[in-house]
Design a protein that fits this description.
By secondary structure, the protein is of the alpha+beta class. Helix content is 56%, strand content 17%. The protein has helices at residues 6-32, 99-113, 122-161, 166-171, 174-198, and strands at residues 34-37, 41-45, 50-54, 60-65, 75-80, 86-93. The strands form 2 sheets. The protein has a 3-stranded antiparallel sheet with strand order 1-2-3, with no helix packed on it. The protein starts with 5 loop residues before the first helix and ends with a helix.
C-alpha cells in the first residue's frame, strides 16, 4: 500500500511518461506530413491519415488566407474533392514555398491530367458549399460567444456589487450564464448556416 507521500509521485510519473510519449509522437507525425503529386493523383500524408486524390476527382485547388500568429503560415493551399472534402496540402504554404508558383504548377498539372472530358461535379459543388457554410457558421458561433462573454462577465461582477432586482440576480447566476453560452453558440451558428445556404 502506498504512503500518502507516494500518491503524487504515483500519479505524476505515468502522466509524465504519457505526456512525453504523446509529444514525441506529435513531433514525429508532424515531420512525416507531406504533399506529393504524380501523373495519377495528389498524395497527402497528414498526421494520422493518408489521402489520395485522383486528378479527375479534384474539383478545385485554392490558396486561402488564414489567421496566423508568430511563425505560422498565413496562406495555405487546399484541394477540394468530389466528396465535398477540403484537404489541406501540408507544407504548401507561404512559410515553406512560393505559394503562387506552387499553386500555378498544381493548377497546370490538374488541368492537363484530369482528362479532356472532365467537368465540375454539381453534387460535389453542393457538398463543398454546405461544408464551407458549416465551417463559417462554427466560426461565427465561437465569435458570438466571445463577444457575448464580455458583457455577461461584467453583469456577473455587477451582481455582487450593485443592488439588482431578484429576478435579474437569479438570471445572472454563473450556472445560468454557463447554460446561456451554448445557447448563444447554437442559435448564431444555426442562423448563420441557414442564411449562407439561402444565399446560395
Amino acid at each position: 500500500m502506498l504512503a500518502d507521500d507516494d500518491v503524487p509521485a504515483a500519479i505524476a510519473i505515468p502522466f509524465t511518461i504519457a505526456w512525453v510519449t504523446f509529444m514525441g509522437w506529435l513531433f514525429y507525425a508532424a515531420l512525416r506530413c507531406s504533399t506529393a503529386a504524380d501523373i495519377k493523383a495528389i498524395h497527402v500524408r497528414g498526421m494520422v491519415r493518408r489521402r489520395r486524390l485522383a486528378w479527375a476527382d479534384v474539383q478545385d485547388i485554392k490558396a486561402e488566407t488564414k489567421y496566423s500568429e508568430g511563425n505560422s503560415a498565413s496562406v495555405v493551399v487546399y484541394v477540394y474533392g468530389r466528396d465535398g472534402s477540403r484537404v489541406l496540402l501540408p507544407f504548401v504554404d507561404d512559410l515553406h514555398v512560393d505559394v503562387g508558383y506552387e499553386l500555378a504548377v498544381l493548377m497546370a498539372a490538374w488541368q492537363e491530367l484530369r482528362g479532356a472530358d472532365w467537368s465540375p461535379d454539381p453534387a460535389a459543388a453542393v457538398l463543398i458549399g454546405r461544408r464551407g457554410a458549416r465551417r463559417q457558421a462554427l466560426g461565427i458561433g465561437f465569435a458570438s460567444v466571445a463577444l457575448a462573454s464580455i458583457p455577461l462577465l461584467v453583469l456577473i461582477v455587477l451582481r455582487f456589487s450593485v443592488d439588482m432586482p431578484g429576478w435579474l440576480k437569479s438570471m445572472l447566476h454563473p450556472l445560468v450564464v454557463l447554460g446561456v453560452v451554448p445557447l448563444i453558440f447554437a442559435l448564431t451558428a444555426i442562423a448563420s448556416y441557414r442564411r449562407q445556404l439561402s444565399n446560395g
